[in-house]
Amino acid sequence: MKRILFIFGLILSLIIGVSCTQNPAQKPVKGVASSVSKAGDVKKIKVTSDNCNVRKGCSPDAPVLQASDKNKTFDVINEVADWYAVKLPDNTIGFVPKGQCKPIVPDSMDRGKAPAPGTKPTTPGTTPGTTPGTRPNIGAGNGAVNGTGRTPGDTGTNTTNNNNKTAQPATDTNSTSLTSQEKEMVDLVNQARAQNNLPALKVDMELTKVARIKSQDMIDNNYFSHNSPKYGSPFDMMKQFGINYVKAGENIAGNQSVKGAHDTLMNSPGHRKNILSPEFTHIGIGIKKGGQYGNMFTQMFISKPK
Hints:
Blueprint: H1 2-20, E1 32-39, E2 44-47, E3 51-55, E4 64-69, E5 73-80, E6 83-87, E7 93-97, E8 101-103, E9 145-146, E10 149-150, H2 180-195, E11 202-203, H3 205-220, H4 234-240, E12 247-255, H5 258-266, H6 269-275, E13 282-289, E14 295-303
Parallel strand pairs: 11-13
Antiparallel strand pairs: 1-12, 2-5, 2-8, 3-4, 5-6, 6-7, 9-10, 12-14, 13-14
């Protein structure tokens, strides 16, 4: 009897030993995702009401400086409560109520550009995280960031800025057409919007180039966060590359497949909100192979009303 118990104990010990010494790296790494959005600075407005009075102050009782017809545009100097301070032809300042106009991005402002050679990127804010060269501690699942807050599920990390690096796009990010994976993701996004009675997003290739750079940057610098150690926040990054917008958003994900990344994003309220926002008009998709998740995905959304 003792001999049988001894043999049974030996076998049980071997089973436990084998299970405990298996290499955890052999297990597939699950996908992750995160989202963020922000309103941009309004630089130009278009009058949307049939009759709009530009007033001397921020009050409906203030003297009228001029009457403006529908579709008249003004350069915006500032926002004051429910009014836009605008520059008038005689270089004086007038006030237009927000309810009688809308922010726009005119064609003259709609020009993406790479940062000038030799210029240093804007110094980004940093958040506690890993140091360069270490793998970020990101668990399975997804998290979402709205505004500047971070939810408990978002364990994205960021590293410190390297001022010796310049904001130069990688040579393989400047293709003028979408890759098959990028096109697949755009189609999935627009199918989801169609199912919710929303217009399709137009592909903005300048924004796509920025999204590709962001995905490659996350792989090269081994982080998963909206804040790049090189380019700063997605909004800093868009500014550096000359992307103009009224509102912008970003979804990032790491996943083995386009469908897997899309499903993860659509099943999270923050990411879904960006994808299905009626305010966004254009999208840029950047997908790069690499990293512990297999592929890195960056979706950048902007609104460019005319």
